[in-house]
Structure prediction request, 213 residues.
Amino acid sequence: MVERYRRAGYVTSRSVAEAMMKVPREEFMDPSDREYAYYDQPFPIPGDGRQTISAPYMYPCTYESLSLGPGTRFLEVGAGSGYGAALARELVGAEGLVVALEINSDTYEFARDNLKRTGYDDVVLVLGDGSLGHLERAPYEAVSVTASTPAVPPPLLEQLASPGRLIAPVGGMDLYGQDLMLIEKDEGGAVKERCLMKVAYVPLTGEHGWQRR
Prediction:
């Protein structure tokens, strides 16, 4: 899989390649789907019927753009299976921080069990509304939103460090999907953004998402 993604240009750094080689994706899948762990598609995980573990190529697309590296303080909105948090933990190292937020209690339990079983229990996993971020451990130098949102939630921009980078799929749930937006904040707090690619994610739930709780 990693070699495939290298050839496609999704994996461009040695650190991302090594992280993807080290983290066993099958351990973050529903047991009935584990034989398909390295297929290029999303698969369902426990939750309310919409949660998925994203297609594996989306993780290098996100983490290469965020430039995750040793010491990075990283916030993930939508922990899902926990796979993304495990990859991020490998990338930021012992001196970094990974905080992963999950709003669905069943999905949260699934991620918690997966992370503990695979030795990534130092990830700070929080049950709550990811669209509000996690002010307690802010600011974050990198933020990844793993569900589609009508706009980047203001609390996430506020909790983004200067400088810092944020990635979010922005747009509706129509046929055309969403724009995967990279937002960069400079040292003075000025923000610029650009679209990386078209994607199709499940909707973000929460105060600043498509559906409130």
Remarks:
- The first strand starts at residue 43 and ends at 44.
